[in-house]
Specification:
globular; disordered N terminus; 4 helices; two-stranded antiparallel sheet; 7-stranded mixed beta sheet; 19% helix
C-alpha cells in the first residue's frame, strides 16, 4: 500500500511540475530580480532551430545539452525552472543569464539566454537589424510546426511568435534574474495568555 501511495504522489509531482505553455502564460516571478535599462520595446519575437547550434565545443551547445529540455508538445526549450530558451544579443550578458521580460499586456516571459545573436546582426548588441527582434526563441522546429502551424509565408506563426496570444506584446520592462528565490513564506508567531 505504501508503494502505491508513493507512486501516486510521484505521478502527481511529475504532472504538476512539468512545463506547459499554459503555466508560462500565467507565470508568477519566483526569483529575485533587478530592473535593467531597456534597449528596445520591440514586439517582434523571431525564432531559430536549436538544431542549427552544432558546434559541440561551444558554450551554447553545452548549455542546451546540459540544462535545457525540449517540450514535446510545443517545441520550446525550457530549463528546470520553466525559463524559455532564447537567443539574445551581447548586451544581455553570457550564455545562461536569465531575464524577466514584462510585456505591455502584463505578461511576464521568463527567458534564459542559450544563444547569442552576432554583433554584426544587431544594433548595439540589442535588437536584430533585419526584424527588430530582441527575443529570438530557440525551438525544435518540427514540433513547433505541429503545435503553432505555418503562416502563408511558410514560417512558424508567419515568423513572429508575437502572433501567438501567449507571447503577444511589446517589451515594457526587462529584469535580470538572480539565483535567489523570492521568499513567499508566511510566518506565524504563537502567543499564549501569559505573553499578554
Amino acid at each position: 500500500m505504501k508503494k502505491l501511495v508513493l507512486f501516486f504522489i510521484l505521478a502527481i509531482f511529475i504532472v504538476c511540475s512539468g512545463f506547459t505553455l499554459k503555466t508560462e502564460e500565467e507565470y508568477v516571478k519566483e526569483f529575485e530580480s533587478s530592473q535593467v535599462d531597456m534597449c528596445s520595446t520591440s514586439s517582434t519575437k523571431s525564432y531559430m532551430s536549436y538544431k542549427s547550434i552544432t558546434s559541440r565545443g561551444s558554450r551554447q551547445y553545452k548549455y542546451i545539452q546540459e540544462y535545457m529540455t525540449v517540450d514535446e508538445e510545443t517545441g520550446l526549450l525550457y530549463d528546470e525552472d520553466g525559463f524559455i530558451g532564447v537567443a539574445l544579443g551581447s548586451a544581455f550578458g553570457s550564455i545562461g543569464t536569465r531575464y524577466y521580460f514584462t510585456l505591455d499586456t502584463g505578461k511576464i516571459l521568463p527567458v534564459v539566454k542559450v544563444e547569442e545573436k552576432s554583433d554584426n546582426d544587431t544594433e548595439g548588441g540589442c535588437y536584430h537589424l533585419s526584424d527588430n527582434s530582441v527575443i529570438e526563441l530557440v525551438i525544435d522546429r518540427e514540433i513547433a510546426i505541429e503545435y503553432f502551424g505555418l503562416g502563408k509565408n511558410g514560417l512558424i506563426l508567419s515568423g513572429n511568435f508575437n502572433n501567438y496570444e501567449g507571447f503577444k506584446g511589446a517589451i515594457k520592462k526587462i529584469e535580470l534574474v538572480s539565483d535567489q528565490k523570492i521568499d513567499n513564506s508566511i510566518f506565524y508567531e504563537v502567543y499564549t495568555a501569559e505573553d499578554f
